[in-house]
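[INFO] parsing input record for glycerol-3-phosphate dehydrogenase
[DEBUG] input buffer:
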Amino acid sequence: MDGASRGLNVALVERDDFASGTSSRSTKLIHGGIRYLAQAFQTKLPPNTLLDIIWNLRIPFPGTEGYEYLKILNADLYERKYMIDSAGFMTTPLPIMVPMYRWWEVPFLFIAGKMYDFVAGRRRSVPPSHYISAAEVFYQFPEIKEQNHEGCKLKGALVFNEGQQNDTRMNVHIALTAAQEGATVANHTEVLDLLSTGTRGQSDYKIVGAKVRDVFTGETYEIKAKQVISACGVFSDAVRRMADPEATDIMVAGPGSHLVMPDYTSPDKMGFLWFTEDGRVLYLLP
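[DEBUG] output buffer:
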């Protein structure tokens, strides 16, 4: 879409239907990643005690690993604002609560939420984070436990906001907009091979297009191009081997699970986040 809107001659092919793969199996969140903020300041997540916070706290100075996490967070928050501002009709703010059971979690998470807002700055595009009481938490999530496994009573929750969107609709909308801008867009069109010139492994070797097949009719076509971009996700290694049969795999699968729960487990306009004991993040989203 960006290339076509700038006057470039662009073609896009998709083996299946648009957004039929990983793109439609996301959490539907447009988020900066509050976990990056935690990783920027401390290595242990979640902290078990106040001593964990003090002992592992680190300042993300330039050149440190923590600073790199801040850069990632800053870039993600910029993209969140851009997505909400440019596609507000399908991307809306979603409040997400983080329950707090131990007394020190109240100031710790409240400060973390405000720092998250601070990093976003003018790029926030969502309401600021805030604290809600235990009574409000029970109102939103009646099934939440009153005490955690340590016997600590619920103190309240931090509520921060992210963006939520229909990922499939966004993908289709981008494809249609690209076509409107002059791009040639074709789904159910499989790449069979890459076209090249020169000798593989030499400096004159160059990819100059792709041979594709219409999945429905079986007809094949050749598309010539000055630049070929592979945006194939988990199938990237298969496309790379078209250019170099001896290429080694570089893709590493990131495991993740999405479960569809009954609608009564979550209110219509509030999400829920908590950390497992081994540091993983779990979301419950409407």
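[INFO] The chain has two domains: 29-165+257-284, 191-255.
[INFO] shutting down worker
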